[in-house]
Amino acid sequence: MLRIEAKGLTKEFKSYTSRAGLSGAFRDLFNRQYRTMRAVDSIDLRIEPGEMVGYIGENGAGKSTTIKMLTGILMPTSGYLRVNGMDPHRERERFVQTIGVVFGQRSQLWWDIAVQESFTLLKKVYRISDEQYNKHMRHVIEVLEIEDLLTRPVRKLSLGQRMRCELAAALIHNPPLLFLDEPTIGLDVLVKLKIREFLKEINEEYGTTILLTTHDLSDIEALCSRVVMLDGGKVIYDGGLNELRTTWGNQKTVLIEFTNPVAADSLSLLTKSLPVSWQRENELRYRAVFAEENTAISELLSLIIPHYEVKDISIEATSTEEIVREIYREGIAHA
């Protein structure tokens, strides 16, 4: 059984538009005008048990709307949707027992009581026996290193401490599917690393399926082998992270440092026969960006070295963040 199966999943919102002036307001009383906005546009999505999938897109791309439909908060306008074999909205009471959700800016912990008390309340909500709770949560608490935080009120925790406790709370019932929406936003590097290590561990030990929505692509690179990219409510890429790099990350960049100052116009003139553009860092350091991957670096150097002394040279790999930025800038679509 697929953890998530969506076919033609669509969500539309109607918004009221008001006309200008007093006469317009009077007409609006009797004849309101609406416009329909399609936030999610006929997307297909299949996620197997145990997968860790990155779900990315710019602001307004439809990520949050999709997550709200997958978690049963919103009902789709049209399309087919099954999560853990259930309709998330119509079978909500049974469905929520099978998912965990962590929203970076929203808390499921009670603000003024101790973390342990919040865990106890959630244990009762999910009808978890003491034996199940102790067996599972002992391991979660130990790995996340939150034992010393259990007696403290949530309001007295730092953001990093609270996020670790939020993760533990989402996993009290050991759900097979975990939704993470910006789980590391605002956290320092060490806390991010700890959370990533923990997510890898629960994925390996329990086979937990994870759908990760984030603007921090380093999270995607650290955790996910597959990425789904959304733009304008449509899926424009669904595939492996390595395939994404291979398909669009083939631009070659060489950083060259000269011994003496060099003018950018001179470099462009010397290399006009090659498909290369130049980016100036300072008067000594330039980037040569190759438009064609098969252009040899030796060809570039053979044109430069007779005229300028090169102090250092290094080849730069294109980061995932740069690749994604370029895809959105160019409007490249690939389903």
Describe this structure in a few short sentences.
The chain has 335 residues and is α/β, with parallel strands linked by helices. It has helices spanning 21-30, 63-70, 92-95, 115-125, 130-144, 159-170, 189-206, 217-223, 241-248, 264-270, 297-304, 320-330; strands at 4-17, 33-47, 52-57, 78-83, 99-103, 177-181, 209-213, 226-231, 234-240, 252-258, 276-280, 285-290, 310-316.
Shape: globular
Q: Strand count, sense and closure of the main sheet?
A: 6 strands, mixed
Mean of pLDDT: 86
Task: Determine the number of helices (DSSP H or I, runs of at least 4 residues).
Answer: 12
Strand content: 25-35%
Overview of this protein structure:
There is one protein chain. By secondary structure, the protein is an alpha/beta fold. The chain has two domains: 4-235, P-loop containing nucleotide triphosphate hydrolases (Rossmann fold, 3-Layer(aba) Sandwich); 251-317, 2-Layer Sandwich (Alpha-Beta Plaits). Helix content is 36%, strand content 28%. It contains twelve helices and 13 strands. Strands 5-6-7-3-8-9 form a six-stranded mixed β-sheet, sandwiched between helices. It is globular and about 75 Å long. It starts with a strand and ends in a 5-residue tail after the last helix. The model has no long low-confidence stretch (mean pLDDT 86).
